[in-house]
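Lab notes, practical 5.
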Amino acid sequence: MIARSVLFVCTHNSGRSQMAAGFLAQLSGGTIEVSSAGTAPADALNPAVVAAMLEEGIDLREEEPKAVSVEQLREADLVITLGADLRALTGGRSYADWDLPESAGLRLAAVRPIRDAIKARVAALLVELNAPAAA
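Output from the prediction step:
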């Protein structure tokens, strides 16, 4: 599969999709255009998500939750949902769904396993996309 752009979509765009986008941007070394959005964006990122990603050397402090648009879905080569329901929207050339627990309202200790599962899925995605992870 070749994907030059990947869009991660979750409900609030305050945790899972932000972590996935952060990992893909870092691990692809910038070779893949990465974005994230939500179907019902929160007011801010979960502080525990920000802290968990800082532990991995990824700074999400300047990121803000954004609403997904039909245009984004159409422009993305690959759309990966993380608990978001996109049945009412169209677009995207390819879809995948990653069934991971919601991170909203969780503390750092509970976010870490979700973060680690997302990192593993992103690494596997890079192999699938024939884009080996950056060192």
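Observations recorded by the TA: The longest strand covers residues 5-10. DSSP finds four helices and four strands in the chain.
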